[in-house]
Amino acid sequence: MQNTLRPEANKRLSKLTLFAYGCGDFASNLCWTFIGSYLTVFYTDVVGMAPAVAAAIMLIARIWDGINDPMFGAIAERTNTKKGRFRPYIFYGAPFLALFSVLAFTTIGSGTTAVLWAAFTYIGCGMLYTVVNLSYGSLSTVMTTNPEDIAQLNSFRMMGTNLSSVLLNAITPPLLLMISGTDTYTARSYTIMAIIFAICALPLFYFVYANCKETVRPVSAKPAPLGKSIKAVLGNGPLMLIFLIQLLAMTAFFGRMGVVLYYLMYNVQRMDLISAFMSLPSLFTVIGIFLTKNFQVKVGKKKMASIGYIGSGLSLIAIYFVGWSNIPLLLVLHCIYGFCCFSFPIPMAMIPDAINYEEDRHGVRSDGISYATVSLSTKFGSAFGASGALLIMGFFGYVANAQQTPEAMNGINLTVNLIFGVMYLLCLIPLYFYPLGEKRAAEIRASLDAKFAARQNQD
User: Fold this and answer.
1) What is the pTM (predicted TM-score) of this model?
2) Is 371 within the bounds of a domain?
3) Number of structural domains found in the chain
4) CA-based R_g, the chain, Å
5) Which residues contact 168 (CB under 8 A, 6 or more apart)?
6) Among 136, 182, 290, 318, which residue's beta carbon has the most beta carbons within 10 A?
7) What is the domain extent for residue 59?
8) In this structure, what DSSP letter does residue 273 have?
């Protein structure tokens, strides 16, 4: 039987540790959010790819992630070093992630050569993001067993995510124009911005490594067989529901992030307000998470997540019907949308409960594979959302660097706002069936502690 050692695991985490953990996603998203927000436009409007080609690259990358992410999760949770199972991958993987996040915004040749280079750098960046961010995310399952601290870790993480988005979206558009020296973004400006963000991200990763320690470890030095771990993860009903929730939510969030720039450039047509439209939602997400993070345990994760998904979905649907000429109302609705995204850290705080659930049932604890499985939803969401949106926009007649037809503009509005708004509302379906409330999760933790104590007495 595999259980969990808990030396210092119930000890409350310090504010420095919580802050350091939040810096991890701040660093990750300096690289990944820039890719998510600007790479599709870089591919279509700078490299000159057809939307279908750009969409194909992203889909192929995500298909590979379906194999690569669980495989790496299995490797990570079977790693055994003095520094832990996950922390070494942050230390050694961060420089390579920074490098490939820059290479993704470079071009080599034209035509087929340019497409192959784009595929290589994008897939490579995705694999390295898995190494670093999956290891970073898995830390939240092994740093503490305290439910309030688990919720706080994921709240600080999401605040780091959105603060980096605020910074990135506020400074990127004007800096891109300044570096370009023209009224359009150039290949050189994208590359320089990627270099700046990579340089800023690297020391933050090492700050996380230095301050976030692993305290929850398997009792047995011999991990469960890989087949048994995979079977345990796939048979974990609560975990699979979390995966579905995140798949829908992340498809909506990252899909919109990947194409909202088209809406702002071609529909709203206010280049001077792009920074505001892209940074205000992230700023209000930080405010929303900060104001609601203490209610996750008190009110319940399911109720808080439901409120957030309903607010996010309805605000985007309202943006669709408002159109794109009423600028003040659009800004207000974008702020409401951002605030309601306080729900984002909640499913991640559910993952340890699902891992405990399976460990209590079958004695198998698969932190790495479990987290990798859920993290796939983020990658699938970013690819399927953005690539699907590009295909829909192409169907309605979108043409890069051209005056869009009324039909194309309506297609952009439909894609960016209505479709993703409905997708947020669909999150409520798997959330309804999620069975692990706060009371049930506490009972499972108590059962695991009792089993651990009994095992210690036997030894």
Assistant:
1) 0.72
2) yes
3) 1
4) 22
5) 29, 30, 33, 34, 37, 197, 279
6) 136
7) 15-213+224-458
8) G
Which amino acid type is present at position 254? Answer: F
In a domain, residue 3? The reply is no
For residue 166, the domain's CATH number is 1.20.1250.20
Q: Would the CA dihedral through 194, 198, 204, 205 be positive or negative?
A: positive
CB 108 within 8 A of CB 114: yes
- pLDDT tens over the chain, length 459 residues: 344 444 455 578 888 999 999 999 899 888 888 887 788 888 888 888 888 888 888 888 877 877 788 888 888 878 888 888 889 999 999 999 999 999 999 988 888 898 999 999 999 998 999 899 889 988 887 888 787 888 888 888 888 887 888 888 788 888 988 998 877 788 889 999 999 999 999 999 999 999 998 887 654 446 667 777 778 888 899 999 999 999 999 899 988 887 888 899 899 988 888 888 988 898 899 899 889 887 877 888 899 999 999 999 999 999 999 988 899 999 999 999 999 999 988 998 898 899 889 888 877 877 778 877 887 787 777 767 877 888 898 899 988 778 889 999 999 999 999 999 999 999 999 999 999 988 898 898 888 878 777 776 765
Longest dimension (CA), the chain: 75
What is the residue-wise DSSP string for 235-263? T-HHHHHHHHHHHHHHHHHHHHHHHHHHI
